[in-house]
Amino acid sequence: MLIYPEIDPILFQIGPLKVHWYGLMYLIGFGFAWWLGSRRTREADAIFTQEQLSDIIFYAALGVVLGGRLGYIIFYDLPAYIASPLAIFKVWHGGMSFHGGLIGVLVAMWLYARHIKRRFFEVTDFIAPLIPLGLGAGRIGNFINGELWGRTTDLPWGMVFPHVDQFPRHPSQLYQMALEGIALFIILWLFSKRSRPMMAVSGLFLIGYASFRFLIEFVRTPDAHLGFIAFDWMTMGQLLSLPMLIAGFILMRLAYRQPIEKNAES
C-alpha cells in the first residue's frame, strides 16, 4: 500500500504571485508539442514550416484553455458556476475537461486551416501525435493537485489519499498519464512516421484516447456531484468518449477507402 505524498499544489510564490504545478504542466505540454512539431518541420518532406508550427501551437493553446474550461463548466458542473460565476477564472484549482479542450482545439484548427488555405485534416493529422505527452503532463498535474483519484482496491500499488479517506485507491491519474500520455504518444508517433492516408492519424488518435479513457473510467471514482450517468456504471467521461470512438472508426474507414497521399504526417 502506498501513501499519497500530499504535494503542495503551489510550486513557488513571489508576493501575491503564485505559480501552480497544474499551470506549469500545461506549459510543459505545449513545450512538448512545440519540440516534437519542430522535429517534424525539419524533415525533408515536411509540409508545415516552423513559423506555421508556432501559429498552430498558439491556436491550439487558445482552444485547449477556452474549450477545456467551458467544457468542464457545461459537462460537469454548470449549476455551481451559475451560482458563482467568478469561479470560472480560477483555473489553477483544476476544472478542465479534455473533451471540451478537444472541441476547442478542433475549432481552432479549422479556423487556422481556413486562414492558411489548407485542408482541415492536414492540420489535425500533423498535430495529433504532438498532443499525448501534454495530456500526460496534465494528468501529473491532477495527481499533484490530489484530484481525480480512483476507486478502492486491494492491489499492492493501491494508494491512500489521506484528504479523501483511509482506503487504498487506484492512482488513476497515473494510469491516465501512462496510457493517454506515454502509450498513446508511442502509438501515434510510430504510426505517423510512415505515409498514411489523410484522416488516418486523426482517426487513430480518437480511437486510442477514447479506448484508454473508457477503460480507465472503470477504476476512476465518478465525480461526486454527477455519479453514474447511465446503467449504474457509465460515467460522464465514458459517455463523452463514445462519440470520439465512433468518429475515430469512421475516419479510419474513410481514410483507407482513399489512396495514400502525402500529408502532414508523411
Automatic annotation (TrEMBL):
Q: Which GO terms describe its molecular function?
A: phosphatidylglycerol-prolipoprotein diacylglyceryl transferase activity
Q: What class of enzyme is it?
A: transferase
Which residues does a 1,2-diacyl-sn-glycero-3-phospho-(1'-sn-glycerol) bind? 139
Predominant localisation class = membrane
Q: What keywords sit in the KW lines?
A: Cell membrane, Membrane, Transferase, Transmembrane, Transmembrane helix
Look up the record and name the pathway of this protein: Protein modification; lipoprotein biosynthesis (diacylglyceryl transfer)
- The EC number(s) given in the record are 2.5.1.145
TM ranges: 19-36, 56-76, 96-113, 120-140, 174-191, 198-216, 236-256
| Record's subcellular location | Cell membrane
> Which InterPro entries does this entry report, sorted A to Z?
Lgt (IPR001640)
Topology of the protein relative to the lipid bilayer = Multi-pass membrane protein
Annotated function: Catalyzes the transfer of the diacylglyceryl group from phosphatidylglycerol to the sulfhydryl group of the N-terminal cysteine of a prolipoprotein, the first step in the formation of mature lipoproteins.
Family recorded in the similarity comment? Belongs to the Lgt family.
Q: What is this protein called?
A: Phosphatidylglycerol--prolipoprotein diacylglyceryl transferase
Q: Which gene encodes it?
A: lgt
